[in-house]
Description:
By secondary structure, the protein is an alpha+beta fold. The protein contains 4 helices and 3 strands. The radius of gyration is 30 Å and the shape is elongated.
Amino acid sequence: xxxxxxxxxxxxxxxxxxxxxxxxxxxxxxxxxxxxxxxxxxxxxxxxxxxxxxxxxxxxxxxxxxxxxxxxxxxxxxxxxxxxxxxxxxxxxxxxxxxxxxxxxxxxxxxxxxxxxxxxx
Length: 121
């Protein structure tokens, strides 16, 4: 399988590449959350990406959530932005840039004490 296409695999094929770890989730929830090992962590072995599902009380629902999160992470890692192509500046942008440069040059000339470029005052 190519590196970028893992997120496109079927659920069973993706789970076959993962290590499934069940553990107790921490946080609010009281006795049930502290005793039941319903949280699921999926570690995708080829890429090392991990995702956790610990929102629900059911291990199967948490497995489904973790699988969805893992798929989203793998898709983000596989995304390659399209190449950018250099474009030429428009005539208007060239004119604006030159006008700004002329304005800055006039301002600096006034600072130097030259009212115009003929010579000192």
